[in-house]
Amino acid sequence: MAAARRCLSLLLLSTCVALLLEPLLGAQGAPLEPVYPGDNATPEQMAQYAADLRRYINMLTRPRYGKRQKEDTLAFSEWGSPHAAGPWELSPMNL
């Protein structure tokens, strides 16, 4: 009984730690918008801001390969019934 209680408390503790660390680890994936240096910024600061802004926009608008377009997928209601009789073609594998 004591071993089960110890395992349960260890599981609860590890779950709490994982939930507390999730926002810290997940925040690194999303880039932060660069801060505008102001109207009185030096040309070097403006160049750095432009580079950071370009990198930020490229990160947000990069293509997501492997994702399907909305029109490429069928809705569940368009699948039809699996029991509906329909034309069935013989393939060489069925012979």
TrEMBL record:
The family this protein is said to belong to: Belongs to the NPY family.
Gene for this chain: PPY
InterPro entries: Pancreatic_hormone-like, Pancreatic_hormone-like_CS
Main function: Hormone secreted by pancreatic cells that acts as a regulator of pancreatic and gastrointestinal functions probably by signaling through the G protein-coupled receptor NPY4R2.
Signal peptide coordinates: 1-26
SMART domains linked to this entry: PAH
Ranges in coiled-coil conformation: none
GO biological process: feeding behavior; neuropeptide signaling pathway
Main location: secreted
Organism this protein belongs to: Saimiri boliviensis boliviensis (Bolivian squirrel monkey)
Cellular-component GO terms for this entry: cytoplasm; extracellular space
GO molecular function, one term: neuropeptide hormone activity
PANTHER family: NEUROPEPTIDE Y/PANCREATIC HORMONE/PEPTIDE YY (PTHR10533), PANCREATIC POLYPEPTIDE PROHORMONE (PTHR10533:SF2)
Protein name (database record): Pancreatic polypeptide
Subcellular location per the Swiss-Prot or TrEMBL entry: Secreted
Pfam family, one: Hormone_3
Record's keyword terms, sorted: Amidation, Hormone, Secreted, Signal
Claim: Signal is one of the keywords in the record: yes
PROSITE patterns according to UniProt: PANCREATIC_HORMONE_1 (PS00265), PANCREATIC_HORMONE_2 (PS50276)
